TrEMBL record:
SMART domains: BTK, C2, PH, RasGAP. Residues 606-707 form the PH domain. This is Ras GTPase-activating protein 2. GO terms for biological process: intracellular signal transduction. It holds the Pfam family RasGAP.
Amino acid sequence: MAEEDDAKIRILQSLRGKICEAKNLGPVSGQNRQRDLCTFCTISLDQEEVFRTKVFDKSGSPFYGEDFYFEIPRPFQFLSFYVYAKGVFQRDLPVGKVSIRKDDLCKYSGKEHWFSLQPVDPNSEVQGKVHLEMRLNEVITENGSIGQHLLVRIIECKELPLISGQNCDPYATVSLVGPARSDQKKTKVKKKTSNPCFEETFFFEVTRSSSYSKKSHFQVEEEDIEKLEIKVDLWNSENLAQDVFLGETRVPVKVLRNDLAHKAWYLLQPKGNGSKSKFDDLGSLRLKLTYIEDMVLPSSCYKPLCNLLLKSPDVKPISASAAHILGDICRERYEVVLPMVRLLLYHNRFVPFVSAVAALELDNTQEANTIFRGNSLATRCIDDMMKIVGKSYLAVTLKPVIDEICESNKTCEIDPIKLKEGDNVEVNKVNEIKLKYFRNTEVCILSINKPLCQQENLQGYVQKVFSSITQSSSSCPPLMCDVFRSLRQLACKRFPGDPHVQYSAVSSFVFLRFFAVAVLSPHSFQLRSHHPDPEISRTLTLISKTIQTLGSWGSLSKKLSSFKETYMYDFFKSFQEEKCIEKVKKFLDEISSNISKESSGLEDAVVLKEGEVQKRTQGKKRLGKKNFKKRWLRVTNKELTYHKHKGKEAICIINVKNIRAVEKLDESAFNRKNMFQVVHSEKPLYVQAGNCVEASEWLEILGQVSRCNEGRLATFHPSNYTGGAWQCCKSQSSSAPGCKPCTTTMLANLQLDIDCDREAERLFSYLSSNDVKLHNMEDACASMAVYQGPQREPEEYSKFTIQEPKETFQTLKQLRNIMEELQRQHNIRSDTTAQYGSLDNPIVGRTS
């Protein structure tokens, strides 16, 4: 049973952060030297690019502002950020890079740091690991003397990098290096593979003896052992160009001093001498990084913690519940609330919990106009809920108009101070028509077709956004409506004499914290793939400000003189005649009415993922390489489609109910990495993702959307059918059952993308890191329960919400017991670390 539990342990890695900005970027060689550069940034796991920003206009200090998040599906050694200068008629030129070892990522977690850019040296761009075996063998020469030969066997390599997007043609050189010798030998070249199997053995003469010795083991001289080492270099064979260095490792021969045999995996290392040379100042890059590695235990380990958290809505008072305590002790860490919200959502316990927490907050709110204004546990929970549940709602409501704003690039500045030279807010049609008296007719027409004025541009965009929002009530997710209805009722109960509070309680979330924020930062809500340009960001800022004001219907009853900016006062006057207040009230009534909406989550197609891939369908041509073409792949909760380009009609449509398996494809099938297959009612669809992160995301989403399908396969073929046989099992029947068991898809909520075990592990991690605060809260409860006089709480006690000390103390005690047991389970499994020198824990060899 223990072995079965260990098999279910998952090591999950994720990276979240932001590429903020660069400063004083240095010149690059070539024609771009000494000029401002159009630059972009990339993120790489070792040498595999997994993220790229858009290109930014000429600037030596560009502001990127690009957020990123991705799961890391494989082991890695370095996380690297590259800055490139965009080439017009030539390839992109590297400006510099920031490389951080995986073990050092924790030093920078959660905070912004400036990193100096280092030069991009080809000899330092390495990835992969090599499996070596070394032995000392005695040999007797023809004249009867005895000597020793060093046997070096190159077994195989794993995870070598792609070269120009394709598998490499690797070979290895093996050298015995010493003060006065350097003997080198070479393996054969392996074609088109990142995991070459060499299985080649080389012999080196280590030392000689002038006479025969009867000793059972010939002892190599001490000085030779100390000075000799085996050096293994991996190269990519280039037919018409210089071979590309892939990495090296160095193993001292003295590892055989106590044992005549040594066999281990080694990480490939860069050539150390390249990084020691001096280089010009290339500038710096500001990054914010949060790397998380979770060891997720079997589900049974987390049941006590989950059960305690899920009882929270029923605990009286709510402040004594486990969920409220967690939010209380981790209030400075905003990310702590997210896994708790996910768990409550998955188990349908969110609405009663957030209603109880909101009621507690309202009890401490003295004025109606300050309702839900702070960054409290209630507001943080609802914020996270809206981001999770309302993702498709935002896409349907805002994405079309956001795309129009970003792609049309109209000027919308109305602040006179920020106008560019030549711009004028008051430019109007009459002034342009006057041009016909001074210029020819053709010029006049061109002039009339220009935007009439920035203010009208902004008014048009605001009207579109506002109308999209106020007409979207039917698309609002039922769960959001349930929360808004509860907030409205609680606010009316707390402030029965205020007619406006029932609306401000809802608008403070749906307008101020949801729609306005999404307009301001569309890339953060997956409405755009990249951070918008500064001019478009300014337009979105102005629209967001206006939407906030229009949405806060209570503020519309105030005088317009309450605006701080005069230009906003003048701009906003035009909206008074549009009866915006009535439209807002009608919208808020519809999304928070007493009529419960039935869920329609699966009635409309929701886009789960889309992107560019390389696609090949089984059996069209004999030569598979020519069959790979770029296609736009798109999966919704209803169908999987691929298109010639984004926005074009679908070439092929596969109903997700017909998907029978989604599995990885062996690299050897087509000599390509990051491939997966979709097995459906017709021939398999073979797809190559852009990188390991993309491949992992496709596999997870397609696996989830088809998990409950009837007719799911139990086995699959990890390779392709060609030459009359499956390459994996050599079965000659194209319809032969698979030779490998299908992957068991983890149970998760597809619409909400929730992995309960992982969320519980995150909560355990946060609780463990705040153990001192838990102790302080226990002390505070004990002090309050024993001492019945006037409360004289220490400063740290006042940070906790303790209404019933005894109830709170009992919950804390249960949390403590659960944490101790979880820690014990972690300790048991942490003792089974992979042996140093194994494939999972390779040796970090010396560099030159």
